TrEMBL record, chain A:
PANTHER family: CALCINEURIN B SUBUNIT (PROTEIN PHOSPHATASE 2B REGULATORY SUBUNIT)-LIKE PROTEIN. Gene3D superfamilies: EF-hand. GO terms for molecular function: calcium ion binding. This is EF-hand domain-containing protein. It comes from Helianthus annuus (Common sunflower).
TrEMBL record, chain B:
Its EC number is 2.3.1.15. This is Glycerol-3-phosphate 1-O-acyltransferase. It comes from Helianthus annuus. The gene is ER-GPAT2. Residues 160-271 form the Phospholipid/glycerol acyltransferase domain. The lineage of its organism: Eukaryota, Viridiplantae, Streptophyta, Embryophyta, Tracheophyta. GO terms for biological process: phospholipid biosynthetic process. Keywords: Acyltransferase, Lipid biosynthesis, Lipid metabolism, Membrane, Phospholipid biosynthesis, Phospholipid metabolism, Transferase, Transmembrane, Transmembrane helix. It is found in: Membrane. Pathway: Lipid metabolism. SMART domains: PlsC. GO terms for cellular component: membrane. The keyword Chaperone does not apply. Its main location: membrane.
């Protein structure tokens, strides 16, 4: 299938498959490996932030900097594990956990009002003032039963976000 | 509360709407009142980011697509080995010989003409033009180039420019062997640069430097001057600004389309069965690329000279450029992507991100109004 798969043995593929709970098929893992090698220009074994940012579609995403913190320097196995949250077969808790991690930038397991405001700032750029964001956020949080001082845990996120409309599916092209 | 802070950003009229090409489901149509769930749900944006990590149309444009290896079993492998021997042992030396012969003939005619005919400009130009066409034919022969030209041959008239899609510097050589064009090019180092500054000067060339922004105005002026001169060779421009892998076209720069002249599109499509003619300048030098071509069986391509186009009333240069790009892509059977080729060398403009941010902000504030 080309030279990329010859450096990935059957053992490697099965090992990666196990770590992502068999969410990806073997063909998809081979495709992801080709993509990994394409992005990792000098075969370092990981993709640097700069190399991620050379994909314009990624660089122009408002959450690119936050995601970069999570994917910068990952080796192939962890790269696949990260992407498994985007698999159509991934469970809802797994998807929501990825969303939670994007908000919880200091990895302390709690998402505060401030954390949410920062994400909203990333998403709205210069088109909403801090005051506007704060007002909107206070209003919707109070309606949902939370105050400005509440910290949300992963369970809260699951409670709030779990609904069938939440789709976060990316298809891995397999040639 | 309801007014979005519109910063000083007019939506960049300078580029076609990328949203027309890319899926935009980060703005799901609002249904009812804004709830906490709607604010926290960043899944569409994350999905776009994940999608970009897994596959993106920009990187695809610059992927080399070598011909499929077919030497994978006991019977075909010896045949392939024989092929290698023929290509490297027989074809390659013959081609080097042809090329050397060509250079000898060329230089022995060009140098005298260049120095001796100093006073007779018209004659000198005619001969030099013919000689450049000759050396290009020798180059094409040295790769066993089989070029099918379709359409009426370009003629030299003022107020017209030729544009073509760009796969490698050999595009220029292939077109030049038929008609001596003047060309606008990036200045290269090494022996290519030497040829650029000596021989190509005689057909009239304009230099630019991608990394210099101020250069744009100077180049623009030079283009205009060239096009208006009646005596100058017809100008050939590659509006993509960079080499693309012949399966896609990236956005055309508008420089060629705002000169007020007729634009004659040329489409070039290489047949990949014989060799992948894409020059991946990040991977190989031009010399390596040429050597690769000279050790392949052949370079087979089609060149279509298409119907000259003029800017329609009320059309902006960008729209004109996109329209011509559509004509070329359709003829060559390749896909269009909405990216600027120079993104190979630099980061996307923050304006692209701002479009998404503005859409998000407006959607939130609008939904807040619906009680």
């Amino acid at each position: 299938m080309g030279s990329a798969s010859s450096t990935l043995t059957q053992y490697d593929i099965e090992d990666v498959q196990e770590h992502c709970n068999n969410l990806f098929s073997q063909q998809e893992i081979v495709s992801l490996y080709k993509r990994f090698c394409q992005l990792d220009r000098n075969a370092k074994g990981f993709i640097s932030a700069d190399e991620f940012l050379s994909v314009p579609e990624f660089a122009m995403n408002p959450l690119s900097q936050r995601l970069l913190k999570m994917v910068d320097g990952l080796n192939f196995k962890d790269f696949v594990i990260f992407l498994s949250a985007f698999n159509p077969k991934a469970s809802m808790p797994q998807k929501i956990e990825l969303i939670f991690k994007v908000y919880d930038s200091d990895y302390n397991g709690k998402v505060t009002f401030k954390d949410i405001m920062e994400v909203l700032r990333d998403l709205s750029g210069s088109f909403m003032s801090d005051k506007q964001i704060e007002e909107v956020l206070i209003r919707v949080m109070e309606e949902a039963g939370y105050s400005k001082d509440s910290s949300l845990l992963l369970d809260d996120f699951v409670k709030i976000l779990d609904h069938p409309g939440l789709k976060m599916e990316v298809e891995v092209p397999v040639d | 509360m309801s007014k979005v802070n519109s910063s000083n950003m007019e939506l960049d009229l300078d580029r076609p709407n990328i949203e027309d090409y890319l899926p935009t489901d980060s703005i799901h149509e609002p249904l009812g009142k804004l709830r906490l769930r709607d604010l926290l749900d960043i899944s569409p944006t994350l999905r776009e980011a994940g999608g970009a990590i897994v596959d993106d149309s920009f990187t695809r444009c610059f992927k080399s697509n070598p011909p499929e290896p077919w030497n994978w079993n006991v019977y075909l492998f010896p045949l392939w080995c024989l092929g290698v021997v023929v290509r490297y042992g027989i074809l390659f030396p013959v081609r080097v010989l042809i090329l050397t012969l060509g250079w000898i003939i060329f230089l022995s005619c060009y140098i005298p003409v260049h120095w001796l005919l100093k006073g007779h400009d018209k004659l000198k130009k005619r001969i030099e033009r013919a000689l450049v066409e000759l050396i290009c034919s020798f180059f094409v022969a040295s790769w066993t180039g089989v070029v099918n030209y379709h359409g009426p041959r370009p003629c030299a008239r003022p107020k017209q420019v030729f544009v073509a899609n760009h796969t490698s510097m050999i595009d220029f050589i292939i077109l030049e062997q038929m008609t001596a064009f003047a060309v606008i090019m990036q200045k290269h180092p090494g022996w290519v640069g030497l040829i650029q500054s000596t021989i190509l000067e005689s057909v009239g060339c304009i230099w630019f430097n991608r990394s210099e922004a101020k250069d744009r105005e100077i180049v623009s002026r030079k283009l205009r001057e060239h096009v208006e001169g009646a005596d100058n060779n017809p100008l050939l421009i590659f509006p993509e600004g960079t080499c693309v892998n012949n399966n896609y076209t990236v956005m055309f720069k508008k420089g060629a389309f705002e000169l007020g002249s007729t634009v004659c599109p040329i489409a070039i499509k290489y047949n990949k069965i014989f060799v992948d003619a894409f020059w991946n300048s990040k991977k190989h030098s031009f010399t390596t690329h040429l050597l690769q071509l000279m050790t392949s069986w052949a370079v087979v391509c089609d060149v279509w000279y298409l119907e000259p186009q003029n800017m329609k009333p009320g059309e902006t240069p960008i729209e004109f450029a996109e329209r011509v790009r559509g004509i070329i892509s359709a003829r060559a059977g390749i896909k269009m992507v909405p990216w600027d080729g120079f993104l190979k060398y630099s980061r996307p403009s923050p304006k692209l991100k701002e479009v998404k941010q503005q859409a998000f902000a407006e959607s939130v504030l609008r939904r807040l109004e619906d009680k």
